[in-house]
Protein 1
Amino acid sequence: MNELLLDDVAIRRVSVSDMANNVYLVTNRKSGEQLLIDAADDMPAIEQLIGSALGDAVNPRLIGIATTHQHWDHVRALAQAVAKYPVPTYAGTDDVEGIAEECSVRISTPLAHGDQLQLGDVVITAIHLRGHTPGSMAYALTDSSGQEVIFSGDSLFPGGVGNTWKDPERFTSLLDDVTERIFEQFSDGAKVLPGHGDSTTVGTERPHLGDWRERGW
């Protein structure tokens, strides 16, 4: 998926770097307000992504940059993005220090579980998923068409949860959070847009939760 056009929002994606990091741009089609999710790398590609959305609204303009988690491969272009677009920045409270260490950007708006970002009349909710990093956040919205979309960072992928480096406590924490805060809250049709690679749906992954817990990763 490089483009998803819904009633309220347009979602565009570009894959950057040799790690295939996904950078997402969400545009409110009515107000033109935009949120960039994960300025991972390759600032020219990010600028092209923003430029590609000029037709998604009458007056598109970036109003925020959200980061899913502190790992270096997700913040390599964050300092450049903030310099070019001096807008509020968002990330999980427990990853703010790590982001500052990785790229010298001080997040302006630390987030807790359940905090909301307003993109015009569209609400984007922060979902704290503990385990891949202490402050990993997914970002979720529900379009007026009924379509739910979850930007899951590196906490949920097709086929399993994110890397917890064979730490049983971290794995259990992440799988518990993903189960309770995503699979028990969203419908099977909810789209999951991860930090790397292809998208999936909650319904596609739901039958495998027990298998993931049994295998331990």
Note: The chain is about 25% helix and 30% strand.
Protein 2
Amino acid sequence: MTTTERPVEPEGESSACCARHNGPGARPDTDEPETARERVNRRWNEILQETRVTQTGVQILFGFLLSVAFTPLFRELETLDRAIYVTTVVLGAAATGALIAPVSIHRFLSGQRMKDEVVEAAGRLMMCGMVLLALTIGCTLLLILRFVVPGVLAEVLVGGVMLWFGLCWYALPLYLRRRGDRRSRTTDA
């Protein structure tokens, strides 16, 4: 059995994890602790879902960026715009690498009984990939908006979008995590 496979159970039986989370009386806010194996399996499945979403987006964006160099307008780019383009393509490539890396790690380590390490490394790579993806999107916007919007308005708009990304992708989750930590501390006391 590989590190990501689960044993198949006879029909009609369910594991404690599935019964607890999916059974007829399951409550999403249950305080029943999950086992270490259940936790690593849940975390791995969550990473797989997150990877599917981000990989698709970064691959489409990266493909678009690569095609830009072959358009007639590309020859007319100023030096600064070419530098922004090169930076954007490099960031897109780096984001693609980071967001696809969990697949490679899993393939190389499958069957090695290293699921905890795989999940930890994949989670870190996903966070790194998300930062690189946000930067890629910001640079792409900057490149496009410099053609469409006059003056410094392009930079202001990109700054606003990047601030929004920072709030949605990083500040909000950290805020919710802290709030959850405070709530769990008060219920434990």
Note: The two ends are 41 Å apart (CA to CA).
Protein 3
Amino acid sequence: MARWYIIHAYSGFEGKVRDAILSEANRMGLEQLVEQIEVPTETITEARRGKKIQVERKFMPGYVLAKLAMNDDVYHLVKNTPKVTGFLGPNGKPQAISDAEAARMLNSKEEAAASAPRQQVKVDYEIGDSVKVLDGPFASFNGVVEELDFDKSKVKVSVSIFGRATPVELDFEQVERSK
């Protein structure tokens, strides 16, 4: 019976490890024992150069989830795969995780899509940083970030207008960090 295991791999090589295990299982005739191999990812929204961009990022860098019918051949297949450091478990011995836990890790992207208002937005500035307004009535003004509202994707910037500091509320993509 196949169970879920977590494989520890070199960070950045998770996809190559997945492909190498699958191709080696096919070559050795063990494809029926290697049911599924996944790299857990999540989709986040980043504000870059004034635009919102959807980015897929690894949910657990350095780890690969695999549904395996564990035996000595499968253990050695995974362990001898390049860029694999071992299994997650006591003393590097494979320890299965529950189906519910695996589903929670793998469904993180579906859960993120279902809860779109809670979608994570990443900006390259923080409170106290100097920013430049890119568009709108205050375009080309410089200011200082006072507040960040991730729920509404808004930033409050203190802009100097006629010598007085005036708070202005803008969208995340309307400002960028001053160089």
Note: The mean pLDDT is 85.
